Amino acid sequence: MKSDEVAFFSLHKQHEIKQLEICWTGTLMNQRQRECKRKMKGKRSKSLSPEPSSSRDAKIPKLSCNSQINDDICNTKTHILDFSDDILLNIMRFLTPQDLLALSLCCFRLFHVCRDRTLWRIVDFRSKPMRIVELKKYLKYFQPQTTSIAINGNFKNHHQVEGNLEELKSDFLLQISKNCKNIKELLVEDYSIVSKDVKITFFPATLEKLSLRGTQVYHLIKNKSYFFEMDRRMPNLTTLIVSDCQWLTGHSLLVISKMPKLKELRLDSCRNLGDCVAYASLATRFGFKTLEILDLRRTGFGDSEIRAFSSTKTLTHLYLENSLKNAEPTDRVEYQRDLFPGPTYEDHILAQYALHGNQHMGCNDLSHCRISDTSICSLGSYICDRRVLNDTAREVILIEEEVRVFNNPNLKILVVKNYPLVTNKSLVHLAANANSLEYLDMTGCAVTKNGVETFKSQKPNVMLISSFDET
Q1: Dihedrals φ, ψ of 287, to 5°?
Q2: Whole-number Å distance between alpha carbons of 340 and 465
Q3: pLDDT at residue 120 is higher than 70
């Protein structure tokens, strides 16, 4: 080889090395970054991509830190493809599934990197509503290592001519069950479901968390719950969220209570759920053996149903709230401040509030505010009424020995908001009998300031929130 050719070849190699050094100057300066790189290399060896993402062509050789950088090389711009696949994966972790699909269409290399299984373990499409037809394009990316999928079908705020809610299809659910053998979470929010076409048994059997928040289910069978046989189909389910589902009725409680491992049940904003004493009594007597978190806010439950749930020994969180119809979610806090500025009359038992104008709490009367001291005093332990065993002897009455019943011994969080029939009597009972209580919210209830201060002095370790707190 001639000397001029050798010089040209050496200059060309030096130029290439200098250009690559720009990309790695900041990444090879300390031991911590090198350790992170080795860890990422071990994770990438398990990739499900058709070819190893860190291929030899994509690898960048280790450079010497003592080499000098020419001025003309410093002005060279770095392209995204100059980075290794490991760095690209760190960047792609912050992208939505929609962005990953668009990026995969750019070139063959990005296509394979975007299909890496580490990017498709937890998939959340809820940044914008998705049609089922569009979601089917992502089925090829779902893998056995995919553990969580979340979708949203509410097109109400996106100016769609057709229905506000997208219809869920059975073939899409069945394909998810086929591709994702180990899926644990499925969040299907704001979709319409035709019960005769999409049955509960079509959902993956491996689920541990299922959310049907805001869904609408049509063509329900009157004598059969939509959740029929769910306890057999999903034996490992621990969390069920059916918030804001107006199709849900009381008889579904019987089926839900059969779930052997259910720990969290969200029923908030199910306004048609109420007047179901018989179903609630049977469900709590024979089911709900592992239930810990129960959300009943903005439902029609009353004292009778709450007393039925008081027999659930494992309950730790209970949320009760009467809705404020005049208040929007964004200004509810300001509305409560105006609604409860301070009592106009107060004694040791009851506080009366003057409402401004035509404002009301929940409804025009108190008929729907069905939770009172009766249900709150059933929580925690209480002493049973003692029976008279023998009163035949003169001036001697033999009565039954005092028996204490422990209901909800593990109750830690209790929220009771906007119930005007809940008074200081509940505070006195909870202070004496709720030994595990850590947080109590009684905003909007008819408790007095004196009662709140007394409770705080008796239970200094319990955080009590009330309408008397300074804002």
Answers
A1: -130, -165
A2: 14
A3: yes
